[in-house]
Amino acid sequence: MIAFKGFNNNLQCTMGKGTYQYEIGKTYKEDKAKCVASGFHCVEEPIEVLKWYPSGRWCMVEASGDIHEDGDERIACTEMKIIKELTKQELGMQECVWLHTHPDREYSRLIKRDSGEADKGDIVIVRGKNPKAAGQMDATIFLLKEEKRSRQIEKIGVYKIDGKDYMPNVFYTVTGREVKCRKTN
User: What is the pLDDT of residues 126-152, one digit of tens each?
Assistant: First the structure.
């Protein structure tokens, strides 16, 4: 199964046995997998990696072998391949795909409902019937518009705040139009 994993800046993370070093493209194996106790840990919903590694590095992984899920968001597995590294913006795009593919599932508390703002160079993902977002310079805003009668995603808008096409501290809609009535500080 495709999943996502966070690391520190050195592509390391802690395990029960201490700090573990990873390399992109390699496959790792453990004897047992139980969430919080053993195995390699990852998450199915991409944005959830930011709960454990808000800064650092993030990768798409393939979790296989014995897989244990804790009913929350964590997955432990006995075999993990580090497929590729993702930027925070790519992680945001993966989250949009995940939300579109799983419209009725509970989603991360990191996803904003209806309105949100992103700090300089960061991302914000907003979902709702009429989502809007603003960001500081070099932020990326992801907007997911739900259908009126369901939670299905009908439209996605992604905008990089560049100071030319999209201005800092201005709210935008899923179609990229400025929300004229409200600006941030």
Answer: 999 999 999 999 999 999 999 988 889
With the CA atoms of 172, 174, 177 and 178 taken in that order, what torsion angle do they form, in degrees rounded to the nearest 10?
Answer: -10
Cβ neighbors of 38 (< 8 A, separation 6 or more) are 16, 30, 31, 32, 76
Measure the CA–CA gap between 117 and 179, rounded to whole angstroms.
13
Rounded distance between C-alpha atoms, residue 168 and residue 137, angstroms: 5
Distance CA 129, CA 120 (A): 26
Contacts of residue 45, Cβ cutoff 8 Å, sequence gap at least 6: 4, 73, 95, 98, 107, 108
Least confident of 50-54, 70-74, 81-85, 95-99: 70-74
φ, ψ dihedrals at 94, nearest 5°: -60, -40
The answer to whether residues 76 and 23 touch, using CB atoms and an 8 Å cutoff, is no
> What pTM value is reported for the model?
0.90
Neighbour-count burial of 44, counting CB atoms closer than 10 A to its CB (0-12 exposed, 13-18 middle, 19+ buried): middle
